[in-house]
UniProtKB/TrEMBL annotation:
Transmembrane spans: 9-30
Superkingdom, natural source: Bacteria
Name of the protein in question: Transmembrane anchor protein
Annotated keywords: Membrane, Transmembrane, Transmembrane helix
Length: 175
C-alpha cells in the first residue's frame, strides 16, 4: 500500500514539474532566448529586449561570417512604430542574392536598394519600392557595394520582419 502511495506521489510531482517547465518555456525562455513571444508576457516583462539586437547575431546576421554554399540565413528584425530600419549585405558586382521577407501582420513600406562601394555622395539605386506585408525575389548586384532593405513602419505598433536570404554576400547587418 505504501509503495502505491509513493508511486502516486512521484507521478504527481513529475506532472507538476513538467507543467512548470512548460510554463517557464512559454513565458520566459522562448521570449528571452528565441524572440518568440506567443503570449505577449515576455514583452510585458521586458524579456524580448534581450533578443531584439541579438536575433541578428544568433542567426549569423551580423559581421562577415563564413557560410557554406547554398546556406540560407535568417534574421528577425523589429521595426519600431513610426520608425525605419535598414539591413544590408555587401555584394560584389554580378553576384546574386535570393530573398524572402514577411511581417507579423500588416503592410510595411520597403525600399530594396544598393549603394556603390566607396561612394560618399549619398547616391543609391532603388530596385523595388512598395508597401507590402511580404516580398520574395532575387537581385543581381549591378555594382560592388552595400545592398539591402529599408523598411519604414507607419503603423502605431512595433512590427517584426522575418528575412530569409541566400546567395553570394557578406552580411553587414543593421545600419
Amino acid at each position: 500500500m505504501e509503495s502505491n502511495q509513493e508511486s502516486r506521489s512521484l507521478i504527481k510531482a513529475s506532472v507538476i514539474a513538467f507543467a512548470i517547465a512548460i510554463l517557464a518555456l512559454v513565458f520566459f525562455i522562448l521570449p528571452a532566448e528565441y524572440n518568440l513571444d506567443p503570449t505577449g508576457v515576455g514583452k510585458q516583462l521586458g524579456l524580448t529586449v534581450f533578443n531584439e539586437n541579438q536575433a541578428a547575431t544568433n542567426t549569423g546576421a551580423q559581421g562577415s561570417s563564413e557560410k557554406a554554399p547554398g546556406e540560407q540565413n535568417s534574421v528577425v528584425l523589429t521595426v519600431p512604430a513610426g520608425k525605419g530600419i535598414e539591413y544590408k549585405l555587401s555584394v560584389q558586382q554580378f553576384k546574386k542574392v535570393n530573398y524572402e521577407w514577411l511581417t507579423d501582420g500588416g503592410e510595411i513600406y520597403v525600399d530594396l536598394h544598393g549603394e556603390p562601394a566607396g561612394d560618399t555622395s549619398g547616391y543609391f539605386e532603388s530596385y523595388a519600392i512598395a508597401t507590402l506585408p511580404e516580398m520574395k525575389g532575387s537581385f543581381t548586384a549591378p555594382f560592388d557595394g552595400s545592398h539591402g532593405w529599408y523598411w519604414k513602419n507607419t503603423s502605431s505598433k512595433d512590427m517584426k520582419i522575418q528575412l530569409l536570404f541566400d546567395g553570394d554576400y557578406i552580411i553587414e547587418g543593421l545600419k
